[in-house]
Amino acid sequence: DRPSPGVGTADAEPRGWLRPDATGHCDWDTRGWWIQRCDVWSPSMGRNITVQVQPAARGGNAGYYLLDGLRATQHTSAWVNDVNAAATFNNSNITLVMPIGGAGSFYADWNGPATYDLDNPVNYQWESFLTNELPAYLQQHFGVAPNNNSIAGLSMGGTAALNLAARYPHQFRQALSFSGYLTTT
């Protein structure tokens, strides 16, 4: 499943090396399937956001963003842990992009901090991260074209996927919602 490749420079294998990130370089995810855990700096949120990325099998430039549901964790994407999308797309020439976190955020930019934990309020600026900050990182380090992406989500993420695709048609060519609660008017 998981290689034991080097860190740093690219080689002939588009998946066989760890990309740079905000901490130095990404880490291999313990689930295997060529998944890298990358910390991407978000100026809008003022912190690193961990993103699980499975590079395209043959260096393709398409990205497939997969968003979690309401109970998103800070540890792993449900797309990796619960349904193993990485195994499903293992031989595809599409880069899977699975951000970690965002519980209850609808992957939107909030006007104020989320205060469910009064000692540690969270600044949700997910729309800015997914549409303005993350695409440049993915283009530079994974070869993902900023205008050749699809987006899908489960539940809360399904709602967000359709909303983001509607607002950013230049970024997302397709959108899928799995059990999203949609207002279609």
Key descriptive features of the protein:
185 residues, alpha/beta, 4 helices, globular
At a glance:
With 185 residues, the protein is α/β, with parallel strands linked by helices. 20% of the residues lie in helices and 25% in strands.
Write the layout of secondary structure elements.
Blueprint: E1 6-7, E2 17-18, E3 27-28, E4 36-42, E5 47-54, E6 62-67, H1 78-81, H2 85-88, E7 94-99, H3 126-142, E8 149-154, H4 156-167, E9 172-178
Parallel strand pairs: 1-2, 6-7, 6-8, 8-9
Antiparallel strand pairs: 3-4, 4-5, 5-7
Can you characterise this structure?
This protein has 185 residues and is of the alpha/beta class. It has four helices and nine strands, in the order E-E-E-E-E-E-H-H-E-H-E-H-E. It has helices spanning 78-81, 85-88, 126-142, 156-167; strands spanning 6-7, 17-18, 27-28, 36-42, 47-54, 62-67, 94-99, 149-154, 172-178. The protein has a seven-stranded mixed β-sheet with strand order 3-4-5-7-6-8-9. Strands 1-2 form a two-stranded parallel sheet. It is globular and about 45 Å long. Residues 1-11 have low confidence and may be disordered.
